Amino acid sequence: MPLFMNTKMTSLYKLLLVAILMMSLLINAHASANSDVKVPFHLINGLTIIQAEIDGIQGNFLLDTGSDGIFIDGDLEEAHQHNIVSLGGISTISNTVLEELKVGSFRQYKLDAQIISLSPIEEHLGIDLKGIIGGHIFRPRVMTFDFVASQITLSDKLSKSEKTGFTNKINIQLINDIPVVKVKIENKWYQFALDSGSSIHFMDAKLLSKLSNVTNTSENSTLKCLANTNTSIQKKTINSLSLGSITFENQTCIPYSFETVNASTPFTLDGILSLSQLMQETIIIDYTRSKLYF
Predict the structure, then answer these.
(1) How far apart are CA 215 and CA 202, in angstroms?
(2) Coil vs helix vs strand at 271
(3) Closest Cα to residue 43, out of 177, 202, 182, 151?
(4) What is the pTM of this model?
(5) Which of 14, 85, 252, 266 has its CA 20 to 30 A from that of 58?
(6) Which domains are present in the chain?
């Protein structure tokens, strides 16, 4: 009997240990899932640059909410090359799989990525750029861009007090994992992508030609993009555009054809809004509930 009781109690003790261990793991996982991730950033020529690590390689990465992919600077493998459509035209890439991506305490594993030469963008920024990280990898989290503190916060959700602190809350569509908002220009609505990877607004050239309150500027802009093309384009100024209840006046933009991009997607995009050019103190993209706060 004592031996039996001892065995039984030992088994029960082991079960309790396992239960406690499982509970501890669940608590730790829950705490990790709901903890905010703080990511410092700095703007270089209007582009959002963060520090990240991919497969042991640390350095500067462009955070691009207007991209649905991850691009790594490197030499292409001829056997696996293919083309993709980007704003600047056709770009040649090769595919790879990333073992691990680290942004602060945020981790992702086994991610598809593309290898491409980033030299045109490096020339524009004047830094060693390791890659481009699309904002989609942080789904389904909330991304808070604090332009005053130069910090991005990744969180699971917004509290009620945080939501009430913003005067503007508008719906966004996530199309190919890219946030798209409706923008009002001259009493008509158009679809624009929200882009932290653009230093200036872009607007479809055909649309611009139809607007009445557009003026030419004396400045030209050289468009540098993944397609390794350098195109000089005259900047234009739109009298105003509205996002939610806020009207942004005298917005500089670049006219560009979106025909190639729209031909490869199931939706029509009229332009791209640069987050840095809007320059609100704080902009929040809520990927979980498809909302934009500012």
Answers:
(1) 15
(2) strand
(3) 151
(4) 0.81
(5) 85
(6) 38-155 (2.40.70.10), 160-293 (2.40.70.10)
